[in-house]
Amino acid sequence: MHTFLVIFQVLAAVALIGLILIQHGKGADAGAAFGSGSSGTVFGSRGSANFLSRATSWLATVFFVTSLALAYLVHGTKTSTSVVDKVAPAIEQPAAGAVPAPVVPATEGEAAQPAPAAPVIPE
Fold first, then answer.
1. How are the residues of the chain apportioned to helix, strand and coil, as percentages rounded to the nearest 5?
2. Does the predicted model carry a pTM greater than 0.85?
3. Is residue 88 part of a domain?
4. 5-29 average pLDDT score
5. Is 63 within the bounds of a domain?
C-alpha cells in the first residue's frame, strides 16, 4: 500500500508540474482577442483555460490527499515521543561549592551515620 501511494504521489506531482507549465499566463488572453488563432483550438477560445485549470485543481487535490495519506501511514500509528522522554533521568549532583557531609565511623552494633550538617556561611 505504501509503495503504491508513493508511486501515485510521484505521478501526480509530475502531471501537476506538466499541467502548470503548459498553461498560458493571464497576459496571453489579450492576444486571443485580436485574432491570434486560439479560437480554432480543440477546446475553443476559453475552453482550454477552463479545462486546464480544473485539471490542475483536481490534480492538486489528489496530490494533497496522497500526501496526507502517506503522512498518516508513516507517522500516524507511532506514538510520538520527545527527546526529553528518551534521556535517562539525571543523577542528583551536589551544588557547586558544596562540601559533602563527613561520615561518622560506626561503633559496634550500629550503622554508619552522616555527621550533622555544618552551617553554611555565605561568602
1. 50, 5, 45
2. no
3. no
4. 86
5. yes
